[in-house]
Amino acid sequence: MRFFGETRIDFIGLRKIAFIISGIAIGAGLISLGVKGGPKLGLDFTGGIEIHLKFEKSPSIVKIRSALSKIGLGGAVIQQYGRKGENTVLIRYRVEKISQRLASNILKYREKKGKFTNLNELKQIPNIELVGYENLTNILTLKPSSPGKINLNEADQATLNSVIRDIYHRKIANKIEKAVEKEFGKKNPFEVRSINLIGPKVSEELKKDAILAVILSLIGMLVYIAWRFELRFAVGAVTALVHDILVTVGALSLGNYEFTLPIIAALLTIVGYSLNDTIVIYARIKENMKTFRKKKGSFKDILNLGINQSLSRTIITSLTTFVVVIVLFLLGGAPLHGFTFALLVGIITGTYSSDFIATPVVYAWEKGKK
Prior knowledge:
Strand order of the largest sheet: 2-3-1-6
Strand content: 5-15%
Number of helices: 11
CATH topology of the largest domain: Multidrug efflux transporter AcrB transmembrane fold
Shape: elongated
CATH architecture of the largest domain: Up-down Bundle
């Protein structure tokens, strides 16, 4: 099946215009990232609380937001998800990083006094009220050995950070639950399905793993294509992939979307999608190089022919994929918006880069050698 007849578009001749358009798109994204101080990281990478609630009847998101605003948690992300009738709500809140500051205050006091002689001295620590003196005394002790408790005079920064963070997270989670219960009461009862506490250590590991996954995928692609075709083709393909990632990341920043693990999954999906289209074009070019070089066809003509021969397939594949993803974006609900938006941008940039970036870079490489 062909979307349209034979085409003779001079993709290589349009490369300079394409490079300028790509430069503007990437530049706009980088400026947005620079103004915002980097990507807007989601809870997966910053740490915080994630609470899943199931209501008896469909709840009002506006009322939930109002209830949380009354207790100073208006910045929470509230999303209704699941099938119609499930009435499930996800509340995500990025907890203020007070644990490190409070742990430092405790250590400074201990260094100044030599050691704690009484747990009541904790009341003198600045900001102690944020986690509660009683909550700390349930975990900390001054006795040399006490099962299930931590010696306050021996605990290091990391241990105190962990203890305080856990207490504070649970305190916030409890406040959220009580606020929602007060707002709905018996009119629309709910149950807490799960409470997930995401700490910064896990977040940092996820951040490193996400970056490493993207980098290793690009290196793997470079090695494979260099082996399967030639180095110049590998450089063109990886350039196109980097282009797609930069444009997508920039678009997410401009759209004010949070970077979460599903977004990283979308970026890796885009890498695979874009590469597949590029490989198809490269395979056509490789076949044409054997056939048309004997007829003394120019390298530019061979590259253009390969792209034009694959164009119908590219359009059909991209359109069918785009339709599925746009339906997910429109009907999948708020939890899927970031993921599907990244895929939509990736499909467009992946299709564009296979024709206007990957192959023209191969031509530029060859022209530079000559």
